[in-house]
Amino acid sequence: MKFILFLLCSLLYVSIGYSQTLSGYVYDEKENLPLQGAFVYLDGTTLSASTDSLGYFKIIAKQKFSTDLVVSYIGFSNFKVSNPYQYINPIKILLREEVTKLDAVVISREASPFSREEMLKVFRENFLGTSKAARSCRITNEDAVVFHFDKNSNILYAKSIEPLQIRNNYLEYNVQFDLTDFGIRYKAMTLERCYQRAVYFSGTTSYKDISKGNAAYKQRIEAYLGSIPHLMRTLVSNSWVNQKFKLYVNGMEADPQKYFKITDTLGVKKVTVIQGSNKAKPLNINTSGETVEDLKKKQEAYLKKQGVINFTVRYNGNEESYFTCPTGIFYVDTNGQYFPISNLRFEGYMSQFKVADMLPADYR
Predict the structure, then answer these.
(1) Distance between CA atoms of residues 68 and 299, nearest Å
(2) Would you say residue 51 lies in a domain?
(3) Judgement on whether residues 53 and 122 belong to the same structural domain of the protein
(4) Are residues 88 and 113 in the same domain?
(5) Which of 39, 76, 108, 161 could crosslink 72 through cysteines, CB 3.0-4.6 Å?
(6) What's the pTM?
(7) Are 29 and 55 contained in the same domain?
(8) For residue 211, what are the contacts with CB-CB under 8 A and spacing of at least 6?
(9) Apex CA 300: angle with CA 296 and CA 303, to 5°?
(10) What's the pLDDT tens digit per position in 295-316?
């Protein structure tokens, strides 16, 4: 199903003390009537609201977040408002309903080489993860997930016909995850983990705190320490020693200030990576005609030649993580969220944690 939403006006942005208020209206485009019960949220946070009988919503945040405002309603597509704080007038969003959503799901008439239970097991492991938190997570509407294994490319695809509802009993959050993309590329027609080449997924999330008091305090602290947001906050505040992170380049401990220039811009931190004078350009697999593995080796050699550094980080002397920034620039907000997402590439320990170990952007 394809949906169209029309942004007629702009978001109301009001600064009250240290708070930020976002408000607007959600309407049915065909009938031009307000939609009561539409779900509006700041992606990746616990901040949300439902529209009232007038279609009106209001979200009050203690600070600005570098994330999208998402509008969701049953039978209609999500709509994202990028950088919602930039607007000064109220928004009126018209949602147009279509007949079905099934055409958004890849369905093959060929018999799958694997059973649904086999594919579901792999999906859980690569979407939720395999950590202690993942073992305490449950997707309550797994029937909404549709699978397709492409025999030609050896890619397992997954789509969801409705937002996934996740109960995280370890971190004590209810998570709504609107899955827009999921895929696992294999070296052969198998679901064995050792044959995985790449795993990717994307979507929008809304969190609801279900913890009573500080019952989940210890678990959340453990999830945060050593995470990517923790590293990003450490990097922009240059507090590597206090936060127990160490940076390595070419196997030797390195001074972060020699490799990262931090400046303030538009309320966020701009990070400029000091590396080779030339910027590496991605090689194009479509024109090179090479396999993914050969291209990856060639890309790594090319990045090294161009001076793009492969950084190694360790937290508290334990597991290693690796990251590169081929573009040489990325941004970090006060919550440790970096963007654009595609500008950093992580491998190793930090890349292993999935949805079950993620904390909302407004976690403190």
Answers:
(1) 32
(2) yes
(3) no
(4) no
(5) 39
(6) 0.80
(7) yes
(8) 172, 173
(9) 135
(10) 666 665 655 555 689 999 999 9
